[in-house]
Amino acid sequence: MSPPTYNRLVCPGLNLSPEETPSDLFDKEHAFFNSFPWTAARLSVPGAIAFVPPCRNPVTDVHDQLFGRTLANDRSITHMLCIFRAESPAAALDPAQTITEMETLICAGDGVSGFPNVVHGGVVASMLDESMGALFDLNTTLGKDASAFKANNVTGKLDVSYLRPTPTNSVFRITVKVEEMNGRKTKFHCELKDEKDVVLAKCSSLWVTVKPSL
């Protein structure tokens, strides 16, 4: 039985398809990244389960507009798809098994440049930040037991190191890993890598669970 859908995450592998989701949303993203040998290899790793994060499938005109509408065009963040690994769909759906690692495949067009042919640093930070948020969305949607997934979480700190220029009109992968979960605080490490697995940017981040009264 599929878990209740708390947000707009789309994952055919786990039978998650929220109402009013464009019928070709997942297939278009999957086909795009499957057309590059190096990202196709990521999608075919044993146990890999792909999903479209909620930020690319807004439920209203005031929700997830940055990545879902404003940047979702042929010159900005043209494509985005996330992947996590599990021993089986049953393991992925097990509330006791928190998912602590995933990656985002993402394509940035020439409309997000700062310097010519280089992705704006603020957009790089946003891509890293959004990927970490997608990991929260995944665990929340799958009904994981940890208290952090029972309420909203926000970025409390984002420390980004820009190591090399991030070229526009390129495909990247962003690796996300939870380093520590302690009550309302979750610490992440995140890296933006190119086709050759060169790290272009990395960050450490602290996320905080919002109190119900806020």
TrEMBL record:
SUPFAM superfamilies noted in UniProt: Thioesterase/thiol ester dehydrase-isomerase
Record-annotated Thioesterase domain positions: 117-200
Pfam families named in the record: 4HBT (PF03061)
Protein name, per record: Thioesterase domain-containing protein
